[in-house]
């Protein structure tokens, strides 16, 4: 009948959605994204293409290559921290690594740094620290009081 909607089981709907996303990432603008892409990652990539977001490369001491984290143009330090958390959660999920990271511990133990300056104020904008597109931010261990 016309106008009648059919209900799909959750697994089938999810499979259809994932297949659609897989076709979407074949687009030249989105080809850098992984096959198991999330809608959030597609939105971030589109924002990058339109100049509404920047990529901040995060350098960890135990990694040889920096992690490319996408944040909006006027992002704060807190926004960057949340983007790092989301990036790592997706990375761990895809690679089957550590299931849970205590971010409270991470942020209590480490500072983010840029150009030798600690990013201590979560409310301060990244551009106030001089962070631009493709700049590299690192981690430094906090000193005990």
TrEMBL record:
Highest taxon above the source species: Eukaryota
GO process annotations (BP): mRNA splicing, via spliceosome
Pfam family, one: Ubiquitin_4
Record's GO cellular component terms: cytosol; intercellular bridge; nucleoplasm; U12-type spliceosomal complex
Location of the SNRNP25 ubiquitin-like domain: 55-143
SUPFAM superfamilies cross-referenced by the UniProt entry: Ubiquitin-like
Signal sequence, renumbered to the chain: none
Name recorded for this polypeptide: Small nuclear ribonucleoprotein U11/U12 subunit 25
